[in-house]
Specification:
Two copies of one chain form a homodimer. By secondary structure, chain A is of the alpha+beta class. Chain A has two domains: 212 residues, Aminohydrolase, N-terminal nucleophile (Ntn) domain (Glutamine Phosphoribosylpyrophosphate, subunit 1, domain 1, 4-Layer Sandwich); 40 residues, no CATH class. Chain A is built from six helices and 14 strands. In chain A, strands 12-1-2-13-14 form a five-stranded antiparallel beta sheet, covered by helices on one side. In chain A, strands 5-6-9-10-11 form a five-stranded antiparallel beta sheet. Chain A has a two-stranded antiparallel ribbon with strand order 3-4. In chain A, a hairpin with a 3-residue loop joins strand 1 and strand 2. Chain A is globular. The C terminus of chain A is likely disordered. At the A-B interface, helix 3, helix 4, strand 14, helix 5 and helix 6 of A face helix 3, helix 4, strand 14, helix 5 and helix 6 of B.
Chain lengths: 258, 258
């Protein structure tokens, strides 16, 4: 499994992916699920992928070689806008489907893939898409400023509560790291290191791309800070004044303080 | 879907269930998923159920009528210890399987059910079990002091971080309410009102049983307190000192403070 998250913020994009790939719990590897295509000053695109590794690698290779869209062979370096970029990624996935799906199906393996495509091409707005296995896609909007693929449930509550379109990039980085940390703690199939990319709207270039390892001091700051804050949070919420709990309050408070 | 959680704490048990039942998003109803059996001073058992409503209701009815275990018809009022209680619940589920599974399978409906069984019977220890659709079961332990059934992923991170065997009941109530609130916000198929039960170890009686509705003042206290604490938490974590973010810090801090 995989967990990838992308934030669509006023200031720009924050995209984060884990790197764990597994074929059963006894076959775990590290593969980057983040791919970038840039022509600095003109375009910046970042792709995050989840699903069957053979499918995502095949789609990525096809994208680099060129995929037919509107009767022309195109790449992410020459599509003219982000909508075309998302369509091209969809076509690449459809090409893989046409090549491999029948044999996968014959062996009872689902055609499992999803790709996030974020970025900006000069002359157009910054956009963030989620392309499905069928090659169709949805787009993040100010009302729905984040997208997730893969093992998304554990890390969703913190995003539901914290991310708005006007959230700053700094806050966004913390939130995706907490969301990822929650997922990694709860599910063995997602793991470190992480790949983080930050894009600032209007710049058409990568602002920050960083491989975050277990020992990363900032990851530790976020983990410890979050852990301590949560502990303070639930100690800080008053206890219920329901009859039973009232009677026990003295004991409980003593234990909480201990 | 459903979300139920049970905490196995030194002080006692905290058990919480939502009440939403749905057959498609256009057929939503409220059904209690909490069942209690008590002989005050001698035994207290609490069951929480998830899965196909027809299966759980059938199992519960069979339990009330009596189910054959060790060649004798028994109920939760006369089994002699908690291990037998869990076995009896398993047998009730197996009886439903024998009666209904073939026809369900013919109509492509899975045999989907799980039941949590917590409580204490005089002469034995307090225990908390999770009974599977096959009628077998696992038990909570001091190392693994909580069990969940149904839509468990959204609400798991807060329990992973917060619940230990020596957590007080007061803290436990807050944690299960936050865990449930996270689930309800992220998944439409879980909904209010909630059923909460508290059992204090050694008492063989219900300490608190409460139907928690949308307007419940304490639920609101927990929701608002948690929301505010989280906001404070991620504002409190320092921003990364990575080169890019350093440059933007002034802007971001202004926005955070605004």
């Amino acid at each position: 499994m995989t967990y990838c998250v992308g934030l669509f913020l006023q200031e720009g994009l924050v995209m984060l992916a884990d790197t764990r790939t597994n074929a059963g719990v006894d076959h775990i590897s590290t593969f980057s699920k983040m791919f970038t295509v840039t022509a600095p000053g003109e375009r910046m695109l970042c792709l995050l992928s989840a699903g069957n590794l053979a499918i995502t690698q095949s789609a990525w290779n096809r994208l680099q070689d060129g995929v037919f869209l509107d009767q022309r062979k195109q790449t992410l370096l020459n599509v003219t806008n982000m909508f075309e970029a998302a369509r091209l990624v969809g076509e690449a996935i459809r090409d893989v489907y046409r090549a491999d799906a029948a044999m996968l199906s014959a062996q009872n393996i689902g055609f499992d893939v999803s790709v996030m495509v974020g970025g900006q091409i000069a002359g157009g707005p910054m956009r963030l898409y989620l392309v499905y296995a069928a090659g169709n896609f949805i787009e993040a909007t100010p009302d729905n400023p984040f997208l997730q693929i893969g093992e998304h449930k554990y890390g969703k509550p913190v995003l539901d509560r914290g991310v708005r379109h006007d959230t700053s990039i700094d806050q966004g980085i913390k939130l995706v790291l907490v969301s990822m940390d929650s997922t990694i703690r709860s599910n063995l199939t997602c793991g470190l290191p992480l790949d983080l990319l930050v894009y600032r709207e209007g710049t058409h270039d990568i602002a920050l791309q960083r491989r975050i390892v277990e020992e990363d001091p900032y990851l530790r700051t976020v983990r410890v800070g979050w852990e301590e804050s949560l502990r303070a949070a639930w100690l800080g919420i008053p206890s219920p004044d329901w009859e039973y709990v009232q009677q026990q309050k003295t004991t409980s408070e003593k234990e909480s303080a201990a």
